[in-house]
Amino acid sequence: MSCGEPHETDCSEVLDHLYEFLDSEMPDIDRDKFQHHFEECSPCLEKYGLEQAVKKLVKRCCGHDDVPADLRAKVMGRIDLIRSGQTVPEHDVTATAPES
Fold this sequence. Notes:
Number of helices: 5
Distance between the termini: 46 Å
Shape: globular
Mean pLDDT: 82
Largest sheet: none
Strand content: under 5%
Radius of gyration: 17 Å
Order of helices and strands: HHHHH
Helix content: 55-70%
């Protein structure tokens, strides 16, 4: 997605890292770049607002459920693979292995 206007930070970069911004998981200098981008790019600001609303809704509706430790470990492992740039398996890594 792009608004068609030139920006210091490209729309695709902002949208690729939107959840890092939402979760405050990026350095302050990058947060400042993204905040500046949202101030001048209404399509990205709209997407940000939508994702922020969904995140709040999920937290409100599902935020009290305990996540099984093994599922959390599998999901965190997959996130680590993605962040490190490694190939992520096509199969569902959260599925339990068939019993022999």
